Amino acid sequence: MRADRPTGGGSWVTGDAAMLSDLMGIIGAGLPWAIGVTVLAMVALLFAMTGSLVVPLKAVLANVVSLGATFGVLTAVFGEGFASDLLDTLTVGALNPFVAVLVFAFAFGLSMDYEVFLLGRIKEYVDAGVDTDTAVRQGLQRTGRVITSAAVLMVIVFACFAAARIGNIEQIGLGLAVAVLIDATVVRCLLVPATMTLLGQWNWWAPRWLSQLHARAGLCEYALPEKAHRPAPEPVSGPL
Questions:
Q1: Does the pLDDT at position 17 exceed 80?
Q2: Could you report the per-residue pLDDT of 51-68, keeping only the tens digit for each?
Q3: 39 contacts 192 by C-beta, under 8 angstroms
Q4: pTM summary value
Q5: If DSSP codes are grouped into helix, strand and coil, which group holds residue 92?
Q6: Domain layout of the chain by residue ranges
Q7: DSSP string computed for the chain
Q8: Which one of 68, 87, 163, 231 counts the least CB within 10 Å of its CB?
Q9: How far apart are CA 203 and CA 209, in angstroms?
Q10: Are 39 and 50 in contact (CB under 8 A)?
Q11: How large is the average pLDDT for residues 133-158?
């Protein structure tokens, strides 16, 4: 319609169709850059924390699995009407593009939180000289309750949004609730430990020049002493 506008003066095209077309154009132009920057930042930060190139790439694939399952559920519920009676949701026939981008951004960030929780503890054991198999097992045991508690809290919050009778808010709430639930159970507590156990020492592989870079500029934690040494109390002098 914009191509057929009359000449000789200003004219505009309005309406829901024009707004949706503009929104899709904006998202289509900026989304690849946003995804690229997000993935690059995640890989760089996880490399700085672990010194590995395999672990960040594996985390990207794990997030793809989590997000793919999330958007599959959203399409089935809001696009096809699956379980709409049980969930009391509105079937709108398609996902709102703005909602899809919002769910992607928040779900990606929350997934990385759980990834850092788990990897941080595993890396501590590996740095202490524990083999990878034992480090993964003990790391999962130590962080499982933290991840589960955080996930339960977020699922409850997002479920309240999913109970709204507004299509966009329902999509955001259900999408984030499903993303957190899948990521904190199937992905972080099953797929990630399983793949790390299978890879073994290959989890910590990186090219030589990247290993040298990590040795100079990598992120590391300072270990606390096993026992805190307190100064001996000074003798109290006074009249007997």
A1: no
A2: 889 999 998 898 888 899
A3: no
A4: 0.77
A5: coil
A6: 51-202
A7: -GGGPPSSS-----SHHHHHHHHHHHHHHHHHHHHHHHHHHHHHHHHHHH--SHHHHHHHHHHHHHHHHHHHHHIIIIIT-TTHHHHT----SS--HHHHHHHHHHHHHHHHHHHHHHHHHHHHHHHTT--HHHHHHHHHHHHHHHHHHHHHHHHHHHHHHHTSSSHHHHHHHHHHHHHHHHIIIIIIIIIHHHHHHHHGGGGG---HHHHHHHHHH----PPPPSSPPPPPPPPPP---
A8: 231
A9: 17
A10: no
A11: 89
Gap between the Cα atoms of 93 and 114, Å rounded: 32
- The pair of structure tokens assigned to 134 is 């034992």
51: alpha, beta or left? (left if phi > 0; alpha if psi -120 to 50): left
pLDDT-derived band at 231 (thresholds 50, 70, 90) equals low
Structure-token pair, residue 201: 């020492």
Amino acid at 161: F
Q: Which two tokens stand for residue 70?
A: 């999330």
Of the candidate CATH numbers 3.30.750.24, 1.20.1640.10, 3.30.1280.10, 1.25.40.10, the domain formed by 51-202 belongs to: 1.20.1640.10
Q: Please state the rounded mean pLDDT for residues 32-44.
A: 89
Q: Which among 59, 73, 70, 72 is positioned nearest to 103, based on CA atoms? A: 70
Structure token pair of residue 52: 């590995």
**What letter represents residue 219's amino acid?**
L
189: its two tokens: 């507590």
Give dist(CA 148, CA 117) in Å, integer.
Answer: 11
Angle at 113 between CA 212 and CA 70, to 5 degrees: 120
Amino acid identity at 35: I
**By the 8 A CB rule, do 87 and 174 touch?**
yes
Biggest distance spanned by C-alpha atoms of the chain: 108
